[in-house]
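ARCHIVE CARD
Drawer: 12
Card no.: 0347
Subject: one protein chain, sequence and derived structure
Cross-reference: see card 0346
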Amino acid sequence: MTAYCKTSVSVSTQSPNTQDVHELKTGSELHPYHPSVDNRIKRLLDVIGALVGLGITAIITIPIAIIMTISDRGPLFYSQIRCGVHGRQFRIFKFRSMIVGADKMKHLVENEASGHIFKNTNDPRITRLGSFLRRTSLDEFPQFWNVLKGDMSLVGTRPPTVDEVEQYDAHHWQRLNVKPGITGEWQANGRSKVTDFEDIVKMDLDYQRKWSIFYDIRLIFKTIAVVFQKNGAY
């Protein structure tokens, strides 16, 4: 049985003071799938990219595991439930970049972002190794497994957490019309420098309007350049 991220979606038909609030299982009642979701060429690109990415992941896993064992003992991987297309839940995987139990300490860290995202430039929960993994985006490599499974795509929207989606308004659901991606408009054009959630939503919707296979490839190469320059990552 497929699990979904639930939210109270506000649908305004008059003024903000007279909103009708409907409890929805997903956002599919409001927005249809984007054509990219079922595109075979995009899926082929995802599979090829995922296999290459997993090959690289296999190579870097051993040194990361050794350094993590020495510097900060704990699980090598971090997993969390995220929301995909129309709020479908899936488990995402990353190399662990924070101390063990970081999720339980989230309320102690100031959120420097605006809206339904969480960002802190100097998050004290991030380990020294984790800081390096984030700057180089190496922590993201296990997500190629999610791409191979079909939960994610190489290019899409940032996969939100369940607690973020629980706060969504109606127009925010539009960003979940596509599969979440390892990279996307946000990662390629600002990364962590973009701290306003509404700006991220606009970028995600802009991606949906511009989408094509060639545009995906362009964003992939742009992301690689941004990562090597270490722009906007923390």
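Annotation on reverse: The two ends are 36 Å apart (CA to CA). The CA atoms of residues 46 and 154 lie 6 Å apart.
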